[in-house]
């Protein structure tokens, strides 16, 4: 059989997947999902670094790094998700500021972008999910999902390198809400 050690914690104790070095030790997890657009002028892929700032009615979390381990290769027309942690619970996200910085890697000649290529990232929408405690032992925590869309005349945000775009929770197109 398998030997186990019974913990000294009372039944129903909370455990956190991610903890910090300093107080508060507990960390909230936020899943950020990017739906990338693929307009005709977009490169098939770009690589770079990304940060987000999450805004709600009760607070702001600034500059969450989506790429702490280095650049990410992003393929236009696909979806990607990233999980980030932060000690603050700010509630439902109403606005996201998304920062993009293209990375030219000299070891990858195809990534070098000067005049003949497009280093922009095209984002259709951003989803933010936060796992919350529901207070019931043995039950999975509920998730609060928010779908945020870009402002402007297009169905996507055209984000040049070293710039930001704003996404809000008021999507005009009903198809984006599904």
UniProtKB/TrEMBL annotation:
Domain of life of the native organism: Eukaryota
Protein's recorded name: Uncharacterized protein
Source lineage: Eukaryota, Metazoa, Ecdysozoa, Arthropoda, Hexapoda
InterPro entries to which the protein is assigned, alphabetical: PLAT/LH2_dom_sf
Native organism: Schizaphis graminum (Green bug aphid)
């Amino acid at each position: 059989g398998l030997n186990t050690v019974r913990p000294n914690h009372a039944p129903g104790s909370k455990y956190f997947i991610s903890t910090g070095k300093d107080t508060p030790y507990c960390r909230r997890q936020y899943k950020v999902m990017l739906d990338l657009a693929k307009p005709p002028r977009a490169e098939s892929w770009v690589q770079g670094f990304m940060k987000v700032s999450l805004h709600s009615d009760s607070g702001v979390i600034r500059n969450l790094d989506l790429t702490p381990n280095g650049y990410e290769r992003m393929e236009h027309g696909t979806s990607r998700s990233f999980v980030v942690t932060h000690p603050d619970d700010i509630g439902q996200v109403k606005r996201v500021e998304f920062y993009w910085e293209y990375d030219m890697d000299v070891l990858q000649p195809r990534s070098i972008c000067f005049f003949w290529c497009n280093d922009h990232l095209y984002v259709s929408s951003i989803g933010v999910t936060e796992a919350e405690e529901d207070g019931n032992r043995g039950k999975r925590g509920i998730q609060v999902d928010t779908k945020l869309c870009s402002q402007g005349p297009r169905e996507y945000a055209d984000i040049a390198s070293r710039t930001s775009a704003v996404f809000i929770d008021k999507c005009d197109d009903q198809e984006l809400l599904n």
